[in-house]
Amino acid sequence: MFERNKTWQVAAGAAVLGFIGAAGMFLVEHLRQEMRTSVAKDVAKLEKDLLKVKLELQQLQNQQSTERSVRQKKPSKAKKANSIISNTTDECFSVSNIDSSDMEFYDFSDDESSQVNSTSSLDLLLKELDKKIDSGNVEDIEESLQKLEDLCLEHPSNPELLYRIGKAHHKLAEGHDDKEVIHKKLNKGIDACRAALNLAPYHAEVHKWLAVLIGSRSNLLSLQERINDGHLFKKHVDIAISINPNDSSLHYMLGRFNFEIAGLKWYERKVATTLFGELHNASYKDALTNFLKAEQLAKFEWKENRLMIAKCKEALGQFKEVLNWLQKAKVGRNTTLDEKVDSDIESMLLKYRDYSR
User: Fold this and answer.
1) 168 neighbors 126 (Cβ within 8 angstroms)
2) Which of 7, 43, 249, 319 has its CA 20 to 30 A from that of 242?
3) CB-based contacts of 117: which residues, under 8 Å, 6+ apart?
């Protein structure tokens, strides 16, 4: 759990330092083109063959049912099938007067069991991949990304795979200094999340990671693109919160967004509004409300969130409370952002040390 929280302090912090721009290619099609293999063709052929076999078996059932009804004056009651293929085949079994020995021949329980086991195996695999992606180890993340892309060939319409591909690209982008590489990976991640969004429009994690990826490329775009994507960022965060209001990271992201908007000087806002249209209205009080909500929901001592609460208190002139929150932030757990966060905390503590008297 804490490893995931550490990831969020990096991801959420990077995602809201500006407004950002938009677009992308549909990742599923991209993956199919990039990873066109004989495996995909074999899977499609296998599915077609299985469907053909099932249809033939159903026809055979109907034929046997007709023959029995002619031979028997009082047909025996059909026993309930041990496995379920579909509603249509269930109805066929109940009407066709097939006895238990016949039913055994048509028992597809292995198919159903195989599907259940396959789903369980995928869930377990995704948990393992989440750990590797959150670890921060580049080799583990790259290996996980490749595995996710391979799984997309087997499950091309699974949003759980696609948003994790976006998440993996975000993590890899964080480890690069090359702006071109960063931009490319963030765009691929955005493509993945948009593909997932088309499949699952009410999936909180999809909206959240799309917002994180959009926010993370703010420094790579023009001012107009950043402002345009600022609207997209807030839109997806708002939707994610409406779906999952108990996610502390989402409230933190919204807090950082409002904090940045509130910090714009009047002339910066005037120029941006004149050139590119209206900006979102936000105040330090709005940001403080978001950060306090994140503090309430967080299941760990979130150092950076507490620092942001202190900064809001400072902006609102509540100086005595600034020191209180700085002291809370200082004892928070260590994170990957410690060097910068700790420096800010120490600097502010020196500034407000007299308020302890």
Assistant:
1) no
2) 7
3) none
Q: Long-range pairs for 28-37 at CB < 8 Å and ≥24 separation?
A: 28/152, 28/156, 28/157, 28/162, 28/195, 30/188, 30/191, 31/149, 31/152, 31/153, 32/153, 32/156, 35/149, 35/150, 35/152, 35/153, 37/153
Condensed to tens digits (0 to 9), the pLDDT of residues 144-173 reads 999 999 999 988 889 999 999 999 999 999
Please say whether the beta carbons of 354 and 320 come within 8 A.
no
Does pLDDT of 48 surpass 60?
no
The neighbour count for residue 267, using CB atoms within 10 Å, is 8
- 264 sits in which H/E element: none
Would you say 194 and 24 are in contact if contact means Cβ atoms under 8 Å apart? yes
**Among 291, 301, 297, 325, which Cα is nearest to 12's?**
291
Query: 58 CB contacts (<8 Å, ≥6 apart)?
Result: 89, 92
Please compute the mean of the pLDDT values over residues 314-319 and round it to a whole number. Answer: 94
Question: Exposed, middle or buried, 14 (CB in 10 Å: 0-12/13-18/19+)?
Answer: buried
As a whole number of angstroms, the distance between CA 203 and CA 69 comes to: 51
Whole-prediction pTM: 0.68
Predicted confidence (pLDDT) per residue in 224-270, tens digit = 888 888 889 999 999 999 999 999 999 999 999 999 999 988 888 88
Distance CA 195, CA 127 (A): 21
